[in-house]
UniProtKB/TrEMBL annotation:
Cofactor: Fe cation
GO BP, sorted A to Z: cholesterol metabolic process
Lineage: Eukaryota, Metazoa, Spiralia, Lophotrochozoa, Mollusca
GO cellular component: cytoplasm; membrane
Protein name: cholesterol 7-desaturase
Similarity remark: Belongs to the cholesterol 7-desaturase family.
Signal peptide: 1-25
Highest taxon listed in the record's lineage: Eukaryota
Cross-referenced InterPro entries: Cholesterol_7-desaturase, KshA-like_C, Rieske_2Fe-2S, Rieske_2Fe-2S_sf
UniProt enzyme class: oxidoreductase
Regions crossing the membrane: 70-88
Length: 472
């Protein structure tokens, strides 16, 4: 790969050099009767003039009685804040259910349409709704030491807190005394969470009640369920298993994130109305790539309009393959992807992206990429909130040498591509018996379904069609 990159850098450098020669030559011979050196001198003079004006502006005391002062100030403030946002602030793109991926009907708003489509949609015969594995609870930075909060995922109500020693815990939310929600107003005391109602205290690591303010004895049965947790790569995860089994694999720590050579540049958050399996299955569905993700991102996320001729001069190209890994990593599926862009039919090699994505269990993907601007990764976390509602959060980490706007552009590009998938997911039904044709492409989806079935077990909750709730 290193050889490929050095060739690419050489290619980019030669292009830049040729461009410089052509521009300088043109300016020198046709516009100015001077040499390249003279043109350089003129450029220098121009920069000095502009710099002189900037210095004048900054050092001159502004006239508070002139309206122009306020116009300049407003322009300067906007430029500075805009520059700060683009150059330094991490991206944060949030799309809630109904924001995207639905076609507004008649006089309905997009949100009303989303509700309507959800109600009338044929869900299909879906697999169990909560698979077994690690699921993201929240980003580590959003839970401070001594903080407690409520979280509703996997059909559960949970109290999440970080104890006074910095360790995060996830407990079932409802207090066994009289049912108060421990996360809604509960206070952290040492390694325990104190109920906001009568101040019983529950230990984070095992959920046992350790203290009742008005009783010397604490009954043995006074406890709440404590869920196995791990904190890795800036995320708090909990282990969910319908049979109550302990974790059977670990989520790997990414060394570049831990040692700070890759830095955080942004996040996107999407709520998706679909069965959880639809989303990872997209990684093995290589035949949709050229279709849904072919038009460039400038063509938009609405599947109806992205084929406009306006944007047909450019095209994304994808080559992909997916395979399950063998024991002891049988819970991992691997996608290899090569992405390129062509302009007017000519492939632009410096825009190529090489991707290796590891689907680790049912809800976590580590997607590593290499580009001409450096290396980085997306962390994809997918957590079921309700049987047919998924919370999908992506973080991007890149080499600290990669310019922030480039990293944010990658993040935005990825988000816009995913939002096209969201339109498919929000409106489709899960097809338990798909009409596959004999082909490598459809064969991969079958393979993915067989692989993913390892995350369901006998007591995995199923969707009950009559009540739209889960059967335990
Ligand atoms: S309800 Fe929690 S202590 Fe009473
Ligand atoms: Fe897709």
């Amino acid at each position: 790969m290193a050889a490929v990159w050095s060739r690419r850098w050489f290619f980019v450098s030669v292009c830049c050099f040729l461009l410089l020669l052509v521009v300088s030559g043109t300016v020198t011979e046709q516009v100015l009767p001077g040499s390249v050196l003279e043109v350089g001198w003129l450029w220098l003079q121009a920069v000095r003039t502009v710099w002189g004006r900037v210095v004048d502006c900054v050092t001159t005391v502004p006239d508070p009685y002139h309206w122009k002062t306020y116009v300049y100030l407003a322009i300067l403030t906007s430029a500075l804040s805009g520059g700060y946002i683009v150059l330094f602030r991490p991206l944060n793109r949030i799309r809630k259910l109904g924001d995207i991926g639905y076609i507004a009907e008649g006089s309905l708003t997009a949100r009303e349409t989303a509700n309507f489509v959800q109600r009338r949609r044929r869900v299909g015969s879906v697999p169990p709704v909560y698979p077994n594995g690690w699921f993201a609870v929240m980003e580590s930075f959003s839970l401070h030491t001594g903080q407690a909060t409520t979280v509703s995922i996997l059909g559960l109500n949970l109290a999440v807190f970080r104890d006074d020693y910095g360790v995060a815990h996830v407990l079932d939310a409802y207090c066994p005394h009289m049912g108060a929600n421990l996360g809604a107003g509960g206070r952290v005391k040492g390694n325990c969470l104190e109920c906001p109602f009568h101040a019983w205290r529950f230990r984070g690591e095992d959920g046992r009640c350790t203290h009742i303010p008005y009783s010397d004895k604490v009954p043995e049965i006074a406890k709440v369920k404590s869920w196995p947790v791990t904190e890795v790569n800036g995320w708090l995860y909990m282990w969910y298993h319908a049979e109550g089994l302990d974790p059977t694999w670990k989520l790997p720590e990414i060394e570049e994130i831990s040692n700070g050579s890759w830095v955080y540049r942004g996040r996107t958050e999407h709520m998706v109305n679909a069965h959880i399996e639809e989303i990872p299955e997209n990684g093995a569905d290589v035949s949709h790539l050229g279709h849904v993700h072919g038009p460039i991102i400038a063509a938009g996320i609405d599947l109806r309009y992205m084929w406009s001729k306006l944007w047909s001069f450019a095209q994304h190209h994808w080559t992909a393959g997916w395979e399950p890994m063998s024991a002891p990593e049988a819970h991992v599926g691997q996608l290899r992807l090569e992405h390129g862009i062509s302009l007017f039919g000519v492939r632009m090699p410096f825009l190529d992206l090489y991707v290796t994505a590891k689907q680790i269990g049912p809800g976590v993907v580590y997607l590593m990429f290499e580009s001409v601007f450096g290396r980085g990764m997306f962390i994809h976390n997918l957590t079921p909130v309700e049987p047919m509602v998924q919370k999908m959060v992506h973080n991007i980490y890149v080499s600290w040498t990669m310019p922030v706007p480039i990293a944010k552009f990658y993040m935005l590009g990825e988000a816009l591509q995913v939002e096209r998938d969201v339109m498919i997911w929000n409106n489709k039904q899960y097809e338990s018996k798909p009409l596959f044709v004999k082909s490598k492409e459809d064969g991969l989806i079958s393979k993915h379904r067989r692989w993913y079935s390892q995350f369901y077990s006998e007591n995995s909750p199923r969707l009950q069609f009559k009540t739209d709730s889960v059967d335990w």
